[in-house]
Amino acid sequence: MKMNPLGRTGMTVSELCLGTMTFGTQTPEAEAHAQIDMALAEGVNFVDTAEMYPVNPVSAETLGNSERIIGNWNARTGRRGDYILATKHSGEGMRHVRDGAPISSETIGPTIEASLKRLKTDYIDLYQFHWPNRGSYMFRQNWTYDPSRQNREETLANMEDCLEALQREVERGTIRAFGLSNESAWGTAQWLRLAEESGGPRAASIQNEYSLVCRMYDTDLAELSVNEDVGLLAFSPLGTGLLTGKYQGGAVPEGSRKAISPELGGRHSPRVYDAVAAYLEVAERHGLDPVHMALAWCRTRPFMASAIFGATRLPQLEHLLKSVELELSQVVLDDINAAHRAHPMPY
Q1: What is the pLDDT of residues 150-159, one digit of tens each?
Q2: CA distances, 25 to each of 31, 57, 75, 118, 311 (Å)
Q3: 53, 83, 127, 247: which one is catalytic?
Q4: Against a cut of 0.90, is the pTM above it?
Q5: Can you give the CATH number for the domain in which 111 is found?
Q6: Closest CA to 129 of 228, 21, 208
Q7: 123 flagged as catalytic
C-alpha cells in the first residue's frame, strides 16, 4: 500500500482510508472490529470517523457510536499507535450536536475531550471541521449556492478564534494536526493565510466528496491542493455505491444505502445513471472491475492524499482493498475522460 504525505505534518497516510460512518448502524461492532483488523493487515494505516457518526440516519440515540466502537477496538487490542486516526467536529446547524451551535473556541476543547473519551485514546492525529459554519456548496447545495449573505469579518474572526483554540490543543498534545472538510477554495485559502499570520496549525487536508461522478474539486481546489500541500481526502469515491453498478436498472439491493436513503442524499437522478452506465462500459471494454477502476482512478489524481471508502460487510472490504493492485493505462484514462466530458456534473 502506497503512503502519501499528510500535508506538511510529517505524517504519512495510506492511499486508501477506512471510513466508519456505518459503524453502529449497518455495520455492527463485531463486524466493524473485523474490518479494522483486515484493513490494517492489508496495509491501511488511516481510519476516519466523526463525532456525529453513524449516519443513515443521523440520530441523537446513535450519536458518537462510531467513535465508541473504534475506542473499544483500541482498548481491546492496544494498537492505537499502529494507525492514523482522524475525526471531525460538526459544524453549525447539526441539531443533535450542541443544539446546532457553531464551531468556536468554546466548543473545540470540550468536543475534543468527548471524542477522546469515546475513542479511548489521549490524542487524535487529524482533527477536522466537518463543514464550515458559514455554510457550503457541498451536499448538493451547489445548484442554488449564494454566498452573498455571508459576513466576511465575522467569518475571519471566527477562524482566528478557532485557530487559537486548536493551537492550545496542539500544545496540550490532544491533537497532532488540523484538517478541513466540505470546504471551498476561498475558505481554505483564508485558513492557510490566518494560520501563517498567527502561527496556528496549518490545514493539512481537505475532506470533500470526489469520484468519477463528482469532480467539482478538479477546478479551483485542485490547484490550491497542489501548490499549498493540502491533500484531498476523497469521501464517497464510489459515488455512494453508484459506481458499483448495483443500482442500475432501478435495482435496490436489500440493506444497501439506497434502501435506507432512496435519494442517496440528493444524488439520485436520471443523469447519474447514464453517467454510471458510461463508466461501466469503459470498465467492461477494458476487462476491469468497475469498483477497482473507480478507486484506481482516484489514486491517479495529483492532489490525492487518500480515498476514504466504506464497507458494510467484510467481503465488500476485501474486494475494495484489492483495488490497489490495479494501475490504469493511458488508454483507460483517456476513455474515462471522454465519459466525463459526455456526462459532466450528473448531480
Answers
A1: 999 999 999 9
A2: 11, 8, 21, 17, 12
A3: 53
A4: yes
A5: 3.20.20.100
A6: 208
A7: no
